[in-house]
Amino acid sequence: MIEPHAPPAPPAHRPEKRAEGRTGDDHGRGPRQGPDRAARGGGGGQGCAARLPLPPGTARFLVLAGVFVCAACGLVYELELVAMASYLMGDSVTQASVVLSVMVFAMGLGSLAAKRLRRRAAAAFGAVEAALALVGGCSAMALYAVFAWTGAWGGLWRDGPSVVLVAVCLATGLLIGVEVPLLMELIQRIRRQDPGGAVADLFAADYVGALVGGLAFPFLLLPRFGQLTGALLTGGVNAVVGAALVLGLFGRDLGRRARRTLLVANVLVLALLGTAAVLADDFERAAGRALYGDGLRVSLRTDGQVVALTGGGPGRPLGLYLDGRLRVDGRDERRYHEALVHPAMNGPAERVLVLGGGDGLALREVLRHRGVREVQVVDADPRLVRLARTDPGLAALNGHAYDDPRVRVGAADAFQWLRAGRGGPYDVVIADLPDPGNTASAKLYSREFYGLARRVMAPHGRLAVHAGSAAGSPRAYWTVGATLRAAGLRAAAYRVTGAAGREWGLFLASGGPAAPRLGLAPGGPRPRTLKEGSLMAAERAAGRTRVAGLPASTLAHPRY
To answer: Transmembrane ranges (predicted)?
Structure first.
């Protein structure tokens, strides 16, 4: 894709001797090259007219069509890298910034490197497209393999971008950057054109191609083929178009050895991409076993995430993974969900709203309270909710909570659902959401979000919030506390620990003049892992991690 701040320089025009006494070309814009000059050299020197099998107008249209396809493929590679890095490493803003900035930088380097290739523009373009098809097409599979089998991304600094990701972006961007000057050279060899007009045509084809690629990725490639096969298919299209353009239009300007080499190289690239596409499902299963262990039972891609289930049988605790991260561990999930739900149920609790929690485990704890008459669950992923209903292991763990007639389910983003003002007032709101450090979830920990939650709460209502790790990420945790205060809520902080050192930071908030007291509902169900005394200890443990003076997080200024 062409970047608007770095337009390619047009090739230099050289005056040539006239053939048959002609003094200029048909349009008076420059000299026409004689047939003796056009026939020289295997790759065609700079400024040499191409020997075309088609009329110049048709040939020029086909080159611009090639620009269109190359731009579409290039943007798909960029979006593929952003999506894969965000899925595997989280923090989508950081990953998008790294991918795009490194690729644009590499494209600039590629444009400079293309100066040395312009004398053999056709052969060089064919080689570049074959290499780009291989690198770009296999990029998603390579990143996934590194993540699954090593688990060590090798960040440039702590929590920084992956060295592997940066290397792939550099290679892909370098090859994309080489395309543009070579395409300009090929267009000018077909028919000389004033530089401004040639650049305008090139830009138009490039930007329209980028639009098509940008729309095809989220609406066609990702939902229909998935990350891995979508990238491989894009690489195949890239290789076919590049080879057809060079060998079909400019084959007469290439020596026999160059034509044979390009043909063999593209056949090998297509064979590798095709083999990888056929084996993509087997590869994904093997990577899943490396990532989740031999107990992997379910692995599916929903609209917003990758969901995997392990274990769930006798003697094998269930594990629920979202985008490769352990979200639910059957060994200690009860400790977390009881601590999240039961303190909030200490008071009136006839109507309850659960935001997130599509796995049904927080819902299970809510339904243990007999005074509950209605529970509204709002989760953005309906396929996760369906899995929680139908998977034997997960349904058994959540106590078949979704079969309870008191439960209603809304498939919607929690922020948008609250903004629409549906339902309410609720006595209890349970925010069982991903960690605030995840950029995609930052809006669900903003002052605006808590303001919307407060609107649907009854005057005596209480809000329970999962806020990440108090000990591992104290600044993010206490930023949640500052944000709750900025929204007019008073909150009590507490933290609990589970198996293998896992730890969760929680808040219980209300709109009253003081923070609610942490306790359990008199006469209510007795949690298995939680007692009044342990809640007091959990409050003291959270207090020891306190970070004072933190500003609130907002939609315009997220601070996690």
So the answer is: 61-87, 93-114, 121-150, 162-187, 199-222, 228-250, 262-280
